[in-house]
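FAQ: What does a ligand-bound record look like?

Like this one, built around manganese (II) ion:
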Amino acid sequence: MQQNLRIDGARLSLRLARLAEVGALPGGGCCRLALTDEDKAGRDLVVEWMRELGLAVSIDAIGNVTGLRKGTQDGPPVMIGSHIDTVRTGGIYDGCLGVLGGLEVVETLNDAGIVTKRPLAVTYFTDEEGSRFQPDMLGSLVYAGGLDLEQALATVAIDGAKLGDELRRIGYAGPVPVGKPQVHAFVELHIEQGPVLDAEGFTIGAVEGVQGISWTEFTITGQSNHAGTTPMHMRQDAGYVAAAIAAFTRRLANEIGSDQVATVGALDLTPNLVNVVAERAVMTVDLRNTDETRLQDAERRLFAFADETAAAEGVTLKRRSLARFQPTPFAPHLVARVEAIAKEFGLPVKRMPSGAGHDAQIIASVCPACMIFVPSEKGISHNVTEYTKPDDLSAGANVLLRLVLELADS
Ligand code: HGY
Ligand code: MN
Ligand code: MN
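The answer part, i.e. the structure of the complex:
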């Protein structure tokens, strides 16, 4: 019986479309930055669905929300998790597929009258994106004991808001303590967000691990001056130093090659006027590599270049780490099961690393964890045109269903 069990793809797509209406952007896509009113509305909708499916809903002190489905036995649950917060120009699948895929697994089991041995948990974590409050994966980091709760609550957003205040304001400062969770195993279904599966014709990615991530904020302070009258040798131009660092960042990635990627995603100039030499620049650099040694080398070279360029221009440079994660491998036995189940379903499957950060890499520190990828059309993500075909969504959710049943009845 269980071998023939399949999820209801139309129902999954319907939930994705319904959640996409929350924080919908005029040209498509979503904006539900962590702990904003839009995030609250999305949270409330998913809690409503959890309750409709008979799950016992709990909220912890950092706002992570878990819907628990009883098993025939007590004990640590098999957890299906991801996130529902988005970047500012987000798609409708990033994170949401993992959470709503979990609800779809629950509803499929409810319809079939199946109760697993172990309890099942469907969880969404607070602020996975880290766009508004850094670091990313903040909620799962606190959940796993990797970030102190009080420190997390004191985090100040890019818009100046304090995380603890926002959590209380939206009503998600929950009563459940955090840290030292008991989870039997963790599975996250997620879109690849990169071009590999789509370009190579695979349906499922058996994710072997997540690459290392290094986010740095540079604050450069020079002197504003007249763009026309100030001789070049007398300038302390923060805008020039920021631009030089941005250009170096691209060169650095190309020189290191292989898996190295580097991004200047945020750059803010003050006073940001055509005829004024910028007195201040605040920028971010996102470096990633599957190899920790090469990632450290990239950081060292970037920081040295930034310091030299700032000194030569006579500006001050302050550096702040916003996030730093080492490359994280997933549980080999679970990766092997994802691959085997995909093959049993006749789905083309590829073992691969994840270029994006995910909650699974954090939860991997407290229990065996793995990820199931489905293709992103043209590899586009963190973009309102993010798209994954319904058949691929269903394929991923069916692999999730089968793996969760195996883990929950083992
Ligand atoms: O940045 C990331 O990789 C993830 O989307 N938070
Ligand atoms: Mn994500
Ligand atoms: Mn994302």
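Follow-up question: can I read anything off the structure? Yes, for example: The mean pLDDT is 97.
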